[in-house]
Write a structure and sequence with these properties.
With 310 residues, the protein is an alpha/beta fold. Helices cover 57% and strands 13% of the residues. The protein is globular. It binds guanosine-5'-triphosphate and magnesium ion.
């Protein structure tokens, strides 16, 4: 395991892939891997790209990769596959589109499922992002389909969230969806070759006005991702946001909130494990019979489980 981690840290793509597979499938080994990986993290910019299905996230991602590569940066990409059968068909397309980058050194691409997590972003997705960070990628890009909760989830793990909108598909609903304005650090109105892009830009700007003065005013940019138009401006805004995070109070607040979340996440997992083991020890047919006959209650049993723990 140690040599695997060592090789991954040196940037070996196969070792990185292997590590990610392990943290995805073997929860028991995940912790020791993350313990040795973690001290090497904190250097990459984790960039979340979210938006409705078909908005052009993958097309934009692909163009952003090219631009970052041209600037000499290394990139890790995690495409979070929606488990939903409705959008599942897009996965192959994504793979094909980004394929050209997959063989380049300096680019690492990985698809991950969302199964087993509540939002669109699982613990494994975050750990994979940390692994890519530790292994020297300058930018770690996570593409997720924004469906409800996952947009908020991506905010919890990304430094910079880019929300991709498109003209002419229930614009108001797209924008007004609860909390969505607050999570985006950057708005991209893609498919600007279509009618109505300007209107979406205006609506987003108006919403931002309503939110009032903020240390960071999210830029609202138009792109035609298919043709690469507007992409340099997007890449520039992403870099600006990184600078902002590095030198502002807001940036520190967000880093600390993430660190708190990480500690709490670990505590929750450990406590859950302790409770489970204690309950397994106490559980018996006699006890269940006592519960069935109401000689005791689930509350009293839970008390006993806690007592057993300490
Ligand atoms: N007209 C137009 N079409 C675009 C543009 N960008 C992307 N598309 C097309 O929109 C479709 C969806 O693009 P994707 O990049 O797969 O979108 P996505 O958001 O990754 O989709 P999912 O991952 O399935 O949610 C494709 O057919 C693209 O060719 C654009 O700027 N203008
Ligand atoms: Mg996609």
């Amino acid at each position: 395991m140690n040599t695997l981690v060592q090789k991954a840290l040196e940037g070996d793509a196969r070792s990185i892939a292997r590590l990610i597979s392990i943290i995805e499938s073997e929860a028991s080994s995940a912790e020791s891997i993350m313990r040795s990986i973690y001290p090497h993290t904190g250097k990459a910019q984790i960039l979340g790209i979210t938006g409705s299905p078909g908005a052009g996230k993958s097309t934009l991602t692909d163009k952003i990769i090219t631009s970052l590569r041209d600037a000499g940066k290394t990139v890790g990409i995690i495409a979070v596959d929606p488990s939903s059968p409705f959008t599942g068909g897009a996965i192959l397309g994504d793979r094909l589109r980004m394929q050209q980058h997959a063989t380049e050194s300096g680019v690492f691409i990985r698809s991950m499922g969302t199964r087993g997590s509540l939002g669109g972003v699982s613990r494994a997705t975050y750990e994979a992002a940390l692994i890519l960070d530790a292994c020297g990628k300058d930018v770690v890009l996570i593409e997720t389909v924004g469906v409800g909760q996952s947009e908020v989830d991506i905010m919890r793990i990304a430094d910079t969230v880019c929300l991709v909108l498109v003209p002419g598909m229930g614009d108001d609903i797209q924008i007004m969806k609860a909390g969505i304005m607050e999570i985006a650090d950057l708005f991209v109105v893609n498919k600007a070759d279509r009618d109505g892009a300007e209107r979406v830009v205006r609506e987003v700007e108006m919403m931002l006005d309503l939110l009032g003065e903020k240390a960071w005013r999210p830029p609202v940019l138009k792109t035609v991702a298919e043709r690469g138009e507007g992409v340099p401006e997007v890449v520039e805004a992403i870099a600006k946001h990184r600078d902002f995070l590095l030198r502002s109070e807001e940036g520190r607040r967000r880093r600390w909130a993430r660190l708190e979340m990480e500690v709490e996440e670990i505590l929750r997992r450990e406590v859950a494990g302790m409770v489970e083991r204690s309950w397994e020890k106490l559980k018996s047919p006699d006890l269940l019979l006592a519960l069935e006959e109401r000689r005791t209650t689930p509350y009293a049993v839970a008390d006993a489980v806690f007592e057993e723990m300490f």
